[in-house]
Amino acid sequence: MQAAGLVNPNTSWLNSRGAWLFYILIITVGHLILLSFPFLSVAAVWTLTNTIHNIVTFTVLHTLKGTPWMTADQGKSRLQTHWEQIDCGTQFTSTRKFFTAVPVAVFILASFYTKYDTVHFFVNSLSLLFVLLPKLPQFHGVRLFGINKY
Amino acid sequence: MRTGVWYLQEIILQLRSAPAYLLLLEAVLLVWLIKVLFFTKSYKPHRTKLTQKEKEDLVEEWTPEPLVPDTPADHPGLHPRSFEGKLGKIIRINGQDCINLASLNFLDMNGNEEIEAGAIKTLKKYGVGACGPRGFYGTIDIHLELEDKLSAFLGLEEVAQYSYGFSVLSTAIPAYAKSGDVIFCDEGACFAIQQGLRASRSKVWFFKHNDADDLERMMKLQDDIDQKNPQKALTLRRFLVVEGLYMNYGDICPLPKLIELKKRYKVRMFLDESLSFGVLGANGKGVTEYFGVPITDVDWIGASLENCMATTGGFCGGRAFVMNHQRLGGLGYAFSAALPSMLASSTITSLEQMQRSPDMFVTLARNATYMQQKLESIPGMTLKGLPISPIKHLSLEGSMETRKQEVCLLEEVVQEAESRGVAIVLARYLDDMEYILPKPSIRVAVSSGFSVEELSRAADVVATACATVLARHRGVEAN
After folding, report:
1. Which of A42, A74, B112, B331 is the most buried (most CB within 10 A)?
2. In whole angstroms, what is the distance from residue A12 CA to residue A8 CA?
3. CATH says B113-356 is which class?
4. Counted domains in chain A
5. Sheet of strand B442-445, all strands in order from the earlier edge strand to the far edge
6. Does A109 reach chain B within 8 Å, measured CB to CB?
7. A90:B29 CB<8 A
């Protein structure tokens, strides 16, 4: 599949119209679905939402590398995760700020609704750490212990 | 609304009841987030630039890899042997005339005057090259004449002529066998066949050399697999690839048994007659004539004509619809330049000579049998090959510690024989690419042009050379 026009659409598709809204909507709908399970308490649902959101965003933004299509950049983006490809590596753009803010917001809501129970807090903050650290500019292109290098 | 205020009160109460350190952590997080959101500017991280001094340091540090890597001094590539003149019965190596037992020149047609005269006449008429592949303006009437003559000689419906003997096998097999097909092949098949099998990407069953029972066992196993999956079996093509006379062993395939198996299990048979065409059979028609089997029983016959006729190239023959596929699908046919016209005419002249005087095959068989007797009796060496085969493999009786040692010893035998006027050669293989690497051996090639006296003299020289080298090594071991 040749992506016509842009060199790498991955750099800009999250800036496009409705992408942010869609992101929020997905989290909301997922949360509502989880709330519909009668055997889950409110605290469990919020922790689940937070954790599942973090796992999914970690996988999609920070684990998967390259693009599903051929790019015209001679393979430069093959070794980069989606996060690193956003806006071609420019740090602190509005998309990046937004996607950094959302996990924090979800975390704060989750820790509120779990009534700051220690175990829940621990789980939520651990998953938040996993999601926030790769977004720092110091971690751009960094692969710890050679994991996911190639 | 009162409910809204109540909720707010609840929120504040909850926050109050939370552990303080957790609230602190959250506050820190929020502060950090606000900083990121509002107090950072977007920037593109710049790549570290090297200073001029750093660049110069890096350039000075760099040492290039040598163009020619370290090679051992005894590498055969560093000591090529060169000869002068034609590759006929006698060749001139380093100024000394030697009896040529190294070149594959079974019918002694190299240097034949009639062939040369015909070739020169053709050269004057057509020029040198064909200037194109067969399908792209490279076909000359001589090629068509040669194909007709070959098909008439062998009794095949159609013949396709190639310009390079190796590619007859290596490109024709993948033209018919594709990924997903099944090929049964003899273990001892020559390198050209092995390359063809690799290129075909099919599943290959290697059966023990010349062991028809092992082949039957494997065909039965494949049959069982087919029974389990009849849908797939319908689309599967099965082939059997064997050589008439094996290059690495000097023995003949059990053709009647193979044909019987082929018919029973419905397998297409590919026969490589590179060494048996012009050698076996009363008229030199190959292994089918030798066994008295009708040639139409074999689906595809291919041969390199470089061994018995004074030419390069080869041919393959069979039914017309089989050959037509190859004219488009055989890579060696469609994408290689066609045979130069003078070589095509040499082939035609050689074929005419073969038809005129079939006693050359009798002479060849006699010479081969005689050579077998003489070489068998060399102490300390074993001879592999049938008496009638013009290719014989002379190897060490036991085996030495490493293959390299054995190769070196045989090389010494070759040097000794050369110094006494007989040119023999080691059988060379691509060691890491052969399916089964045969034992190191000296490959002796007999020609029908030799008289019994010449052969006797040559065999004596080989025996003396072996004795000298073995004695030298035994002396070294004893000390």
Report:
1. B112
2. 8
3. alpha beta
4. 1
5. B381-384, B391-396, B442-445, B425-426
6. no
7. no
